[in-house]
Amino acid sequence: MQTQKRFIAGAVCPRCAEMDRIVTYSTDEGQFRECVSCGFKDKLQDEPAAPVAELETRVSRVEKPQQDPDIQPLRFFKKPPTKH
Ligand SMILES: [Zn+2]
């Protein structure tokens, strides 16, 4: 079976610190992320594949409105948010 891998835009590998090298994919065992540069692999817990790139294409599915620009949870993006 072919697993579909998608790049996470702006994601930085925690091991080799390369940007845009992290792909995410899901198997029967769950959701994983993997670095195509160094081979780093990690399992994601109960995390829907909702990287920044997806939020930009599915605006209607954003669940929590981000009203306070000062509150920025763990996030990788390097460019300022353009939505709003
Ligand atoms: Zn890496």
Description:
It is a single chain. With 84 residues, the chain is mainly beta. The chain has a domain at 6-59: N-terminal domain of TfIIb (Single Sheet). It is 7% helix and 21% strand. The protein has one helix at 52-57; strands spanning 6-7, 22-27, 30-35, 41-44. The longest helix has 6 residues, at 52-57. It is globular, with a radius of gyration of 14 Å. The structure holds zinc ion. Residues 13, 15-16, 18, 21, 35, 37-38, 40 line the site of zinc ion. Residues 13, 15-16, 18, 21, 35, 37-38, 40 line the site of zinc ion (ZN).
The description of the largest β-sheet is: 4 strands, antiparallel
Q: What is the SS-derived class? A: mainly beta
CATH class of the domain at 6-59: Mainly Beta
Into which percent range does the helicity of residues fall?
under 10%
Distance between the termini: 40 Å
Tell me the series of helices and strands, N- to C-terminal: EEEEH
DSSP strand content: 15-25%
E-strand count: 4
Oligomer: single chain
Any low-confidence stretches, pLDDT <50, length ≥5?
A: none
Spatial order of the strands forming the largest sheet: 1-2-3-4
The overall pLDDT average reads: 78
Radius of gyration: 14 Å
* Number of helical regions: 1
The second-level CATH architecture of the domain at 6-59 is: Single Sheet
Bound molecules: zinc ion
